[in-house]
């Protein structure tokens, strides 16, 4: 008999398929001012990078991660996947962000979502990124050396948006299994359906999962610009194990725990098609390099170290704009 | 000249886009199963580097009789099934993924077919993963050049005699495969966690080999 775990706090990270690695770095770390806190490889595919962006230390709830496959074909948005990630934006900063995004060559769409002003752009691979006006948006650990002035800094995640055929399965998962609360719904013209909002049990950062019910709309197809999975946040290994047991008992085919070096993960798919992960807060990104050097060099887990020269030759050359260091593309 | 059985069936895909992937997994479903069912293993394996390709047999079965029946009784279906896998392998090669970066994975009748296909063909495959199955014929001589093989069978499976498991291990080993063979006491005719973990490790090793 396992104990019932405490409710899931909210979002831990979002993982997206990208194409051109440098374009990805330039958009997230320069335009959006998110710190590139870790450069490593996809542990299941050591020939490709895995980039992690977040606040200064990569606090759960601020972590955006990408697999940049240089020649990846574009996917398509559709039902059965998470299609957008929203950052928290200071309420007074909407004009600043609109100008900043337009100056960088992006087209900004405007909407109001549950009463909050929302700016939306497509990143260089076509992934939707929302900036949602909010109060008290300071990130847990703001990045002091970032390119965005302090008063305009984004404060980690607000929410993700999934598109689904039928909201019932995702509601059963979030509310029935994971301790989220349903907070409301409203029509969403842009997505062509009804947007339902679910709130995790945490505070401030990464609280919401939205699901837009779009009956009969076509399913998405994986590729560059599509979101691979969304990770929810649990405190520790014991809680994660309790969730794994509970989810399996409820009929979800949860994977065994996988060591992702900076956190531990289990994965499972909701009947809607959305791939979820439950990830632990520990050990975190400063586990293998100090905070003042995060993201400066290619970090590999111990079990890949012996392959480092092969990996460094295989991954393309990139520049981390914080340190102006080059990584990869070794001759 | 009529087309062989299974030549025109659908092929389902999942995971990484075939044309960007460096590694692939060719999934062969069992009797009464479907490509879509077996593709759900892609979630469980959770290996984002892989393109998964699953051909569908006509009428949900690759051949009508037991794999232990005289081969002639299963023709022309067996011949058509093997040809279908050959076509799938060719399509993967054309997409830039050669056999040494392809894992061939099968369950039950699909495991029998997958092992027969690889043993007949010879050469180095990325991996051969057999869940509850064994070779259809035993007189193979081509080298498998160190192809890693996982084979898991129950000690009491109505479809797969234990003796055939042992013979399969013996033949594939003689052909130069590196065989990880596991017998699971009392396992029903299904795929269990230990087998999936073993398969995942073999597939994960392939992603290094592709560097």
What would you say this structure looks like, in words?
The complex is a heterodimer of chains A (331) and B (211). By secondary structure, chain A is an alpha+beta fold. Chain A has helices at residues 21-31, 94-103, 168-177, 237-249, 308-314, and strands spanning 11-18, 35-42, 45-54, 63-68, 81-90, 109-113, 116-122, 128-134, 157-164, 181-188, 193-199, 208-213, 227-234, 258-259, 264-269, 275-280, 318-320, 325-327. Chain A has a single domain (10-327), classed as 2,3-Dihydroxybiphenyl 1,2-Dioxygenase, domain 1 (Roll). Chain A has an 8-stranded mixed β-sheet with strand order 2-3-4-1-13-16-15-14. Chain A has an 8-stranded mixed β-sheet with strand order 6-7-8-5-9-12-11-10, covered by helices on one side. Chain A has a two-stranded antiparallel sheet with strand order 17-18. Chain B contains 6 helices and 7 strands, in the order ββααβαβαββαβα. Chain B starts with 10 loop residues before the first strand and ends with a helix. Chain B has a single domain, classed as 3-Layer(aba) Sandwich (Rossmann fold). A 7-stranded mixed β-sheet of chain B has the order 1-3-2-4-5-6-7, sandwiched between helices. Classes of the chains: A alpha+beta (331), B alpha/beta (211). The interface between A and B is medium-sized, with 25 and 21 residues.
């Amino acid at each position: 008999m396992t104990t019932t775990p405490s409710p899931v706090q909210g979002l831990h990270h979002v993982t997206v398929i990208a194409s051109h690695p440098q374009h990805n770095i330039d958009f997230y770390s320069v335009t959006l001012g998110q710190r590139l806190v870790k450069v490593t490889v996809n542990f299941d595919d050591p020939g490709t990078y895995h980039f992690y962006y977040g606040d200064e230390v990569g606090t759960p709830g601020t972590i955006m991660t990408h697999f940049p496959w240089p020649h990846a074909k574009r996917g398509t948005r559709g039902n059965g996947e998470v299609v957008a990630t929203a950052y928290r934006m200071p309420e007074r900063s909407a004009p600043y962000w609109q100008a900043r995004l337009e100056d960088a060559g992006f087209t900004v769409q405007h909407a109001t979502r549950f009463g909050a002003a929302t700016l939306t752009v497509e990143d260089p691979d076509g992934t939707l990124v929302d900036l949602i006006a909010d109060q008290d948006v300071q990130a847990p650990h703001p990045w002091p050396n970032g390119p965005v002035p302090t008063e305009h800094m984004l404060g980690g995640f607000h929410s993700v948006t999934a598109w689904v055929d039928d909201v019932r399965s995702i509601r059963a998962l979030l509310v029935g299994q994971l301790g989220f609360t349903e907070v409301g719904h409203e029509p969403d013209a842009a997505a062509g359906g009804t947007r339902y909002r679910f709130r995790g049990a945490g505070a401030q950062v990464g609280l919401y999962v939205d699901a837009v019910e779009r009956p009969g709309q076509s399913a998405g197809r994986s590729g560059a610009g599509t979101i691979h999975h969304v990770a929810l946040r649990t405190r520790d290994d014991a809680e994660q194990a309790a969730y794994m047991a509970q989810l399996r008992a409820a009929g979800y085919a949860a994977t065994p725990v996988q060591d992702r070096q900076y956190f531990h993960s289990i994965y499972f798919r909701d009947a809607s098609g959305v791939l979820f992960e439950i990830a632990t807060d520990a050990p975190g990104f400063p586990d293998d390099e100090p905070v003042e050097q995060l993201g400066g060099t290619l970090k590999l887990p111990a079990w890949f170290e012996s392959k480092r020269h092969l990996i460094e030759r295989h991954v393309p050359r990139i520049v981390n704009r914080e340190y102006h260091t080059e990584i990869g593309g070794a001759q | 000249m009529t087309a062989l059985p299974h030549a025109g069936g659908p092929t389902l895909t999942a995971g990484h886009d075939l044309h960007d992937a460096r590694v692939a997994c060719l999934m062969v479903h069992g009797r009464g199963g479907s490509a879509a069912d077996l593709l759900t293993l892609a979630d469980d394996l959770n290996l984002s580097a892989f393109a998964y390709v699953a051909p569908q047999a006509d009428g949900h079965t690759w051949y009508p009789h037991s794999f232990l029946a005289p081969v002639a009784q299963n023709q022309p279906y067996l011949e058509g099934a093997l040809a279908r896998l050959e076509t799938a392998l060719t399509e993967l090669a054309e997409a830039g993924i050669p056999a040494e970066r392809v894992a061939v994975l099968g369950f039950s009748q699909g495991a029998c077919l997958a092992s027969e296909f690889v043993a007949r063909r010879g050469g180095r495959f990325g991996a051969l993963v057999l869940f509850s199955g064994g070779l259809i014929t035993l007189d193979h001589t081509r080298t498998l050049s160190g192809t890693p093989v996982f084979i898991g069978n129950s000690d009491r499976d109505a479809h797969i005699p234990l003796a055939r498991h042992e013979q399969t291990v013996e033949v594939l080993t003689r052909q130069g495969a590196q065989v990880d063979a596991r017998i699971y006491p009392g396992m029903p005719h299904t795929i269990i966690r230990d087998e999936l973990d073993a398969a995942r490790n073999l597939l994960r090793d392939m992603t290094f080999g592709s560097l």
